[in-house]
Design brief:
mainly alpha, 2 strands, ABC transporter involved in vitamin B12 uptake, BtuC, single chain, two-stranded antiparallel sheet, about 325 residues, about 75% helix
């Protein structure tokens, strides 16, 4: 089967699976089914899972393509933690959760964090992969320290929301949260899909990419803007959801290859599917209690990533 045929088949399977999970999430749960509950509680929650999941997965695929590093992901290079720092600082200043101002606060701080990481890891226009990862770890620890420092200053009214948020949960999802997150993520998706074909030559190096008519610096700048828009708004509403941006692109790359024009759209669909499925499990496994979605994605994502990592080593994709 051609690569285009595989892409069409995988997308069809993914879209159908998303539809099944979407419908199941609307009609199952501990509470009784009523139009009010479905519309005001379940619908915004499942829509938000799809938006956040798509953003995280596409951001991971984009970072891996731009930096040529299979371990690049929003949670590893500090984007998620920086967005969380922005959200916690905003909450401490009295900005309500599920609000547009808090989403922009997360975007600004995440953007600053990513700029710092890239500037540390760059030399003569080239990004050192090891420095990128180590810089991301440092920014993540610094950002999480800011979260802890801001926590005592969050007022009591927002304390419950902050508790759910800190654990990575969609429990308090509202249509206001969807409105705050979705437009920014959509803009990020448009940018990511728009530069997808120009990301592929970056794997050949900046000189080769320039010979092919691709401005590596400009593409990288657009990619970083897209990553911040794809990740930070969701983090401000639901907290840090790990492994989505790392595992989904890797798994799809085994079937679709490295071509980003196929990989990024497929990552959006399957990232949405993974997070929506994880939220469905978190709501129903121990109902009426909930498991944090971040815990579910980590429990599923970590073993899957270890298997994928082993396959990559055997294939020589990762070398010393």
């Amino acid at each position: 089967m051609s690569s285009g045929g595989r892409f069409a088949l995988i997308m069809m399977i993914g879209v159908m699976a998303v539809g099944v999970v979407f419908a199941a999430s609307l009609v199952t749960g501990f509470a009784d089914i009523s139009p009010q509950i479905v519309w005001s509680i379940r619908a915004p929650r499942v829509v938000l899972t799809l938006v956040v999941g798509a953003g995280l997965a596409v951001a991971g695929g984009l970072l891996q393509g731009v930096f040529g590093n299979p371990l690049a992901a929003p949670s590893i290079i500090g984007v998620s933690a920086s967005g969380a720092a922005g959200a916690s600082i905003g909450a401490a200043l009295g900005i309500p959760f599920n609000s547009i101002p808090l989403a922009f606060m997360g975007v600004i701080i995440a953007g600053v964090g990513l700029i710092v990481v890239r500037s540390i890891a760059s030399r003569d226009g080239k990004v050192n992969s090891t420095a990128l990862l180590l810089g991301g770890v440092a920014i993540s620890f610094f950002s999480l320290a800011l979260v802890l420092l801001a926590t005592p200053f969050v007022n009591r009214e927002a304390g419950r929301s902050f508790s759910f948020w800190a654990n990575g949960s969609f429990a308090l999802a509202t249509w206001s949260g969807v409105i705050a997150v979705a437009p920014l993520v959509v803009v990020g998706l448009v940018i990511a899909f728009g530069i997808a074909s120009r990301v592929d030559p970056l794997s050949l190096g900046s000189i080769a990419a320039r010979a092919l008519g691709v401005d590596a610096d400009r593409v990288t700048q657009y990619a970083l803007v897209a990553v911040v828009l794809l990740v930070a708004p969701g983090v401000t509403v639901v907290g840090i959801i790990a492994f989505v941006g790392l595992v989904v692109p890797h798994a799809l790359r085994l079937f679709l290859g490295p071509r980003n024009t196929f990989l990024l759209p497929a990552s959006a669909v399957f990232g949405a599917l993974l997070v929506a499925s994880a939220d469905f499990i978190s709501r129903n496994m121990l109902a009426p209690a909930e498991i944090p979605v971040g815990a579910v994605t980590a429990l599923v994502g970590a073993p899957v990533f270890l298997v994928l990592l082993r396959q990559m080593v055997r294939r020589g994709v990762m070398s010393t």
